[in-house]
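Handoff note, outgoing to incoming analyst
You'll be picking up this chain. Sequence as last confirmed:
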Amino acid sequence: MYTAQSQHASFALQLATLTLACLGAWAEEIPRPSAAANAQPTPVAEEIKVTGKAANEGDIRRNQPASKIIVGRDELDKYGDSTVAEVLKRLPGVSVGGGPGRGGGIRMRGMSEGYTQILINGEAAARGFSFDSLSPDAIERIEVMRAPTAEHSARAIAGTINIVLREDYKAKQPSQLRMALSEEDGRLQGRLDVQWGAQVDALNYNIGGGYNRNSRSNDSSGSRQGTDGRTGLSYDEVTASQSSGSGYHLNFSPRLTWRIEPGNTVSLQTFLMRNQSSSDSLSTITRLSGPAADYARAESHGESESTMLRGFGNWKRNLSEGAKLDVRFGFNSSRSDSENQRQEFLGDGSRKEIRLDDSEIEETGFSTGGKWSRPLGEDHSMAMGWDLEQSRREEHRVKLVNGLPEVADAGDLVVARVRKLAVFAQDEWNLGPQWSAYAGIRWEGIRTESEDALGTTSSNSSVWSPMLHAVYRIPGSSKNQLRASLTRSYKAPNTRDLITRPVLSDEENSRSDPDRAGNPNLKPELAWGLDLAYEHYFSQGGLVSASLFSRQIEGLIRRETQFETAGSGRWVSRPRNVGEATSYGIELEAKLRLAEIMGDAPPIDLRANYSRYWSRVDNIPGPNNRLDEQVPQLFNLGLDYRFKAVPLTVGASLNLVPAYTNRTDVDEWRDIDAKRQVDIYAQWRFSPAVQLRLAGNNLLHQDYETRSRQTGTGAVQSRSTTPTYTQWTMMLELKF
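Most recent structure output, in case you need it:
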């Protein structure tokens, strides 16, 4: 299918074809040579090479049937980020949970983590995947899709982030070694990443790996006022906690591609991730008034380790009449072990109890999928395919209080099985020079089974997801276009939320610290989505855009805390489908070189984006009855300056999320502090093969505060303040 991203190559090809056609027509007019002449050696044909300019990220984005932001190797190398989260936080509509300078869940359009689909090489990220453990050096590109397409899962109400690991070795991307040393609050952290590849005849291989040693401290202080769950009397207390931890992340991702013959290629790639950490913490409670606290001091020590192995396979075969077959297959195997010991002491120093929480989780699975595509003319193509995934998760968890099982009747073992099947079809076509359109439909079915000592539960759900995308290129300007999308997406319940087995609270059971349990009757959240956008592209890859979106959500899942009278009576938090919700917003983006709009401008690259979000949960009264944890605003600003006299580039960026209030239930509120983060860097290029980068992250190192309020029965209000720290990093990059 012809696209604008190959205009230069297509023009050269058409010119060469026209030239050959003219030569052929001219040759028809020349008398045919005699037989003797035919006996002469045939002259060697002159080799004709057709070349074209490589499409930049702006060209690729412009010609996608659905809105997609591409972050390629050029941008990943440009900023020298040490984590994937640092890359993503600069993108429009993408935010990172947690306080400034602290990694957290990745979110799109301000919504909580579960609304954003995270993929690795087009497949769902395995349980336990950590952004902190994956170096940007291991990534070929990052694709951010605001609306779903049939080829990928529709479990993406907010959007999809697809991380594509390093692909085939390319001579223009030489092997490289990166070494980084960071300091934060007096603690040193080190990182080493390497990428190496080569081409040997029909074999192409690329080997990458990284090792990260980390050490961090996390302190917090707070206060709490409420009603004591044992006596019913009011209390007022202050809390404090100190924790420190260290560990390492290791990843290894080799890739092998075998070109059996032209149009017949097999690729194999594995991804190994290993994490290990240990932590110690001390927390205290000081009652200013009211009855004595459940404990005065608690000491904890934890050890954890996890290993994840994932394999990807891909077979691509060209068929007759321009058709193509793309078959994927993969497997995953992971294991995680954690042990946490917690001791609680009373005010007189005597030990009240000792808790041991030992957990072992093993998960295995396989997946396969494929796509058959075929052109239906010069400007029309269709495709259809399937996805199949099956996984088994076995969790063995022992929780002892003073040597006795905490939940004796539930047993120690939980086994969960998940089966997913999807089929899809999609059609793309150009309707003249102004219009291009995409239509797709996808059916996905999920079956979940869980088994423990309390019995077996199962859940079945399926979703049809129609999808329509259209692009209109404004006449008279090839750089301006409009986008529109109408899609159906969904959010499936987490496997853990479907399992009825309870997890008891570590502290005194109360409304603010309830037990947690699942609900096997949960149904998926369904959402109709409308996206509209205007985009203007500059000749050197820059762009400005404005987009609007709306999501109408049915069957919203929220956790509700209630006092359940069964047994001895306890506060329990369970997920439930509570009704409908609406979310909508606007996202503005500019990314360009200043010279593209000012002829005599200095060599400055500018990137800025602003997002404004609104949402409403129907069964919760306003104001502030927003989707859980959805930020109302998000602002990013960045500048990069390249000196002409010396090989030096400097830059700075600002990330701002204003404070907001979230009403999570009829009588529950959360107040979230503003998040302000300023980062700077300087990069000196000694030669094309050697460069040094110095960076400072979170220069403002603000204290981050959250507050919560609950009224009615078991009323409580609390406040927590967490300090953050500036991190300084020095990175040396060598290419060879």
